[in-house]
Protein: Glycosyltransferase
Organism: Juglans regia
Amino acid sequence: MKRAELVFIPTPGMGHLASTLAFAKHLLDRDDRFSITVLVMNPAFAPTNHSLVQFIAASDTRVRFIHLPQVDPPPKELFFKSVEKFITEYVENYRSHVKEAIINHVLSASLPLAGLVVDLFCSSMIDVAHELGVPSYVFFTANAAFFGFMLYLPTRHDQVGIEFRETDPESVIPSYVNPVPPGALSSFALNKEGGYICNVNHGRKYKEADGIIINTFSELESHAASSFFNDGTPPVYTVGPMIDLKGKAPSGDNQAKHEIMKWLDDQPPSSVVFLCFGSRGSFGEPQLKETALGLERSGHRFLWSARLPSRDDGLAKPTDAENLEEILPPGFLERTRGIGMICGWAPQVEVLAHKAIGGFVSHCGWNSILESLWHGVPIATWPLYAEQQTNAFQMVRDLGLAVELKINYRLGSGVLVMAEEIENAVKCLMEADSEVRKRVKEMSEKSRQAVIEGGSSYASLGRLIEAMIANVTVPARKSNMW
Ligand code: UDP
């Protein structure tokens, strides 16, 4: 039996590390011919949190971690100009360390190297793979339609040579069913400070990889899936949904988690709307007030993860709101006692799995979307950052799988989402027999079928594994394969 080693290179930061490790575990659980080495970069600002790494290291000896030395981050000002450009440059600064670690610790070992699995911000590491003469696979943590957008960027750039503008007409992007308005594009597409061009370069680079691995399933993104055929794109492997590694890792605040779950146990089935906005979602006081009013007027029970922006201009994670009496409308907490609960970080996957949850107001991070579909909970869209506007657009317009609260909202834009908009969206979201709810339930079934034997993602992962094993000795041939 042929055995081989893979080197995983995640972007630093909890979200990327967690998704990468989830995939690493998924691969190892499926096929014991692989061993995996994960190269861990330090986060640029936050202190390194190794609890997840320690948890995996202790629970799975087939995953080895190599902690790379600290490198200098780019100037802080770049972070505020373009987060994507900042991360891209920071990762590029790790290139020589990555190459050295592979030469010293992986190539010297007995197993052959089957390739590098690089995160979407780590496309510069595809060059390291070229230099070492091994295959590279992009682990794309967003969805297939957005991967299509990344491929569209260099094609469009070669024609027009300039970033998108708010006044542009809708863009016909092959991986989306409907033309996409500029308001539904990621902020980086409009960014003149390096954010746009660095993503054009990522899109170009992805085409040099030997395969693209995406946490999605073909039943959900059939349009995007078929848009990749016959256009020189590397083989795309849809291997999801992969859900909830973090939920299994030791949680910091078990007491809060216990209280949330106990409160949900006391609520009627499908009666609670859950509001949660990802790892970086937070709102200032005026928006929290509007949200409170909207929730109260909707008349529905709610579980609301309400967090405030960090005090350092967004470099650190948001903080849990503490002085809620002062922030929220007078008497709100008293009036909603018993029908509403406000929390900080929520055990999202467990919450979505609870029978009391009837709807989810979400920032439309891709993991959140997959988690809510898995549990058959419909979403009302309230995108904030990254590719969430495009995700919201796709879920509402292309797929009919979500209720529109907002599509073109951007965090930091100064725009307030008014109580009335929230009230109306929550009422619509919580309708018992809506078409959206029915479609989401059907998609939930399909998501579960996709990953079991005979399912589309199960088969796609099998094809990826065979390609990886074949590529150990045989040079990669590029063709599309699902
Ligand atoms: N999450 C959570 N509790 C929270 C906020 C987020 O458990 O209060 C988890 C959520 O379940 C998901 C991840 O954090 O797995 C967020 O990933 P997503 O891609 O949705 O958004 P991002 O944080 O990358 O913006």
Q: What stands out?
A: The pocket of uridine-5'-diphosphate is lined by residues 15, 276, 278-280, 305, 345-349, 365-368, 371 (CB under 6 Å). The radius of gyration is 22 Å. Confidence is low (pLDDT under 50) at residues 474-482. The chain has two domains: 4-240+454-470, 254-443.
